[in-house]
Amino acid sequence: MRKSWTDREVISIRKDRGTMSIKEIMAKYDLTKNQVTHAIYNYDLNPQSLMQLWRWRWKKIKQQFLDE
Amino acid sequence: MKIYISAPVMHDDYVAIRRLEQIHIILAKHGFDYFSPPGYPSLEGRTEESKRLYNQNIAEMIKSNIFLAVGDDTETIYEAGYFRALADHFRYKTGAAEHKRYLITLSDDKLENVVIRESVDAHLVGMADLEKFTAFAARSWDKPDGLQLTGFDWDDHITRRKIILDYFPPAGDSYA
To answer: Are B12 and A61 inside 8 Å of each other by CB?
Structure first.
C-alpha cells in the first residue's frame, strides 16, 4: 500500500540504514520492503531535513574516528 | 570492492549535499561498500582532532580499491594524487593485480586538465554515467554475474574491469 511519509520518518529510516538491514528496518517500522526502499532511495527530503541528516552522519563518523 | 568518495562539501551547501546524497543512493542501491570522509573542523592551525581525522581518512583511502573524485577543490586533488601514488606503487609489486586500485572522476563536464585526464582510469559525466558504471560494476567487478560478452576472458578480472572502465574514457564522452 502506498504510504505518505514525513521527513522525520525518512530521516530515522536512513539513519538506521547505516547499521541495520532492510529486513530489520521492515520489522522495526512495520513496513513492506517496497516502502523501506522508497524511503531510502526515492523519497526527496526537503533541504533542511537533508542537511540535518548529513550533519548527523558527519558528526557520527567524526566521533567514531576520534574514539578509535 | 570499497569506494572512497572524495567530495568535500561545506556543511551548509545544500546543492553539494544533495549531490552527495544522490551518489550515496546510487552506490547503496547496487550494494557497494563506500566511505565519505566527514570533513575537517573549521579551526585555525593544526589540532589533535584535525590530525586524527586526516590519519583516519588516509587509512580509509588505503583500504579502498576505487577512488571517486567529485569536484576539483584542493582537498580532492590532494587525495587523488595520494591515491594515484598508492596505485602506482603497488603496480610494481608481485601479485598486486588482485589489489589494483582505480581512480575515477565524476563531474558535469569533460576533463579539461591534462594531468588529471592522464592520471584517471575513467571519467563519469553526470549521474547518468554513475548509474551506468555502478550497474556494470555491480555485475562484473569482482566476478561475472550474468553479463557475458564474446571475445573476452571473463575470468581475467583485470581485463574485465578495463572493459567496464573503457566505457567512460577520461578524454572524451562516454560511448552511450
So the answer is: no
